[in-house]
Amino acid sequence: MEEWINELQKWLKQADQLIHLIGEVPTVQFYVAIGVLLLTSVLYLLVLVLKRTKSNTIVFAGLSGSGKTVIFYQLRDGSSHQGTVTSMDPNVDSFVLHSESDKVGEVNPVHVIDVPGHSRLRTKLDEYLPQAAGLVFVVDARDFLPNCRGAAEYLYYILTKASVVKKKIPMLILCNKTDKVTAHTKEFIRKLLEKEIDKLWTSIKNCYI
To answer: Which spans are transmembrane here (predicted)?
Structure first.
């Protein structure tokens, strides 16, 4: 019991000394110190929040008729659309992927943006690239050859955008309609896209020489 009393007396003595020291600090300096402490705490919490806040936006791009919108609907609700679904306005929605809707436990939704592929509407892509966590470039594997040049130009346009280069946004090239008999293989599509992009890069580089 005596030990507890001695410890309490020591603590009270230290507290009294601390109060005495605080009383000797000028009022202005005291409040400045408190303000700095609070500001530091707020900034620290803000940094933690920003670090934890990550974009969940996935942007779909590609030529018109490549199948972006059909894939958008399939991911959202599993619906199977027949033929081509042409979009003149972006399809934007946040949802849990249909393939994960039956999973047990918490499943985070994704924010998916399907940008129209028409050449006059591609500028809308610039509005969504800064918030993108990932890009999906959709290619029609069945009708790839007649659209190879156009797909390569659009892909080159995306890859050279400052927002994509600066943020190093990961990109997936999705070969759609590969289940069709006349579809080209992903290796064939990759090689031709690389070849066309190399041509574009060479022609643009020569313009500055």
So the answer is: 30-50
Shared domain for 65 and 150, answered yes or no, is: yes
> Is the separation of the CB atoms in 105 and 85 below 8 Å?
no
Cross-strand bridge partners of residue 140: 176
Number of domains in the chain: 2
Who contacts 39 (Cβ-Cβ below 8 Å, separation ≥6)?
A: none
pLDDT in tens, the chain (209 residues): 555 556 556 655 655 554 555 455 455 454 444 444 454 554 444 444 444 446 789 999 999 989 998 888 888 887 766 555 666 788 999 988 877 777 777 778 889 999 998 878 778 888 899 889 999 999 999 999 999 999 999 999 999 999 899 989 999 999 999 888 999 999 999 999 999 999 988 887 777 65
Structural domain for 16, as ranges: 1-50
Query: Which pTM does this prediction carry?
Result: 0.70
